[in-house]
Design a protein that fits this description.
Structural class: mainly alpha
CATH superfamily: MetI-like
Order of helices and strands: HEEHHHHHHHHHHH
Shape: flat
Radius of gyration: 24 Å
Distance between the termini: 43 Å
Oligomer: single chain
CATH architecture: Orthogonal Bundle
CATH topology: MetI-like fold
Number of strands: 2
Strand content: under 5%
Number of domains: 1
Helix content: over 70%
């Protein structure tokens, strides 16, 4: 009897051990190595030297493009995560209704999410071309414009296009996360609310939003991580040009490391980005958990 109890006590940990080892080897260990490198001198050839303290962090913060890149990263994350969450929620509400062709609509929505980000960015690069882009061709042929428009006339406009592409490829993920939450809601709740005279907005506030909040929490936290670390869209569309004006932190530290050969500051920036993500995710999760406890 005691043997059976002891086995039941330790058996879950035995099954979890392979996953824990994999996480330790491929996640925790590399993170610790990066932290160590951020406090070390690294030559242009990648040779690791001695301990230099916070010199890499000081140099990274004082780089000319640092402030612009940090602001770009803030705008990038807020716009893509915020707008994709709003649009994804609305589309999920529509796709949760019964109508002819609903399955086809859901299948089509998967395409932007399933397609490679490099391909998506390349296609949009072609669409907004000034000389032969599809957008100008369609607008000219329909008579909406009389002459071709330069959709990439300045770096702020180019950055807006990058954000638009980011929103376009992120909306499907949010939609299906919210849709899974909507489909788990018992229809009798809406029927009871209707009998009590509740309207659409009242149902949305008191039934839909509380019930899909866990799904929204998961999608928002994962979106913050994915969007913050997103590399292909910006690198494919502009490579941060001109002079890092359209870079985010991830593309900037890549350019800093492999093009400008400043590996020490680039490593320090990667640690700063990691800490920012941990802080944002932690604050968001604590806020959501506190709200759930109050309810």
């Amino acid at each position: 009897m005691n043997t059976s109890l002891n086995r039941n006590k330790w058996e879950p940990y035995v099954w979890l051990l392979p996953s824990v080892l994999l996480i330790a080897i491929f996640v925790v260990f590399p993170i610790l190595i990066v932290f160590k490198l951020s406090f070390s001198e690294i030559s242009k050839a990648g040779v690791v030297g001695g301990f230099v303290g916070f010199d890499n962090y000081v140099e990274a913060v004082h780089l000319p493009a640092f402030k612009v890149v940090m602001l770009n990263t803030l705008y990038w994350v807020l716009s893509v995560v915020g707008l994709s969450t709003i649009l994804g929620f609305i589309i999920a509400m529509v796709l949760n209704q019964k109508f002819r062709g609903r399955k086809i609509a859901r299948s089509i929505l998967v395409f932007p999410w399933a397609t490679s980000l490099v391909i998506q960015a390349s296609v949009w690069n072609y669409i907004i071309k000034y000389e032969y882009g599809n957008l100008n061709n369609v607008l000219l042929n329909t008579g909406i414009i009389n002459q071709a428009v330069n959709w990439r006339s300045s770096y702020p406009v180019e950055f807006v296009w990058e954000c638009a592409v980011g929103i376009f490829v992120t909306v499907p993920f949010v939609t299906f996360c919210v849709l899974s939450g909507l489909q788990s809601i018992d229809g009798s709740l809406y029927e009871a609310a209707t009998m009590d005279g509740a309207g659409f907005w009242s149902k949305l506030r008191h039934i839909t939003l509380p019930m899909v909040r866990p799904s929204l929490t998961v999608s928002t936290v994962l979106n913050i991580i994915y969007v913050f670390n997103s590399f292909p869209i910006i690198y494919t569309m502009t490579k941060g040009a001109p002079a890092h004006k359209t870079d985010t932190m991830i593309t900037y530290l890549y350019m800093l490391s492999f093009y400008e050969r400043k590996k020490g500051p680039a490593t320090a920036l990667s640690v700063i980005g990691f800490l920012i993500l941990c802080f944002c995710a932690g604050v968001y999760m604590m806020t959501v958990m506190r709200r759930e406890e109050e309810q």
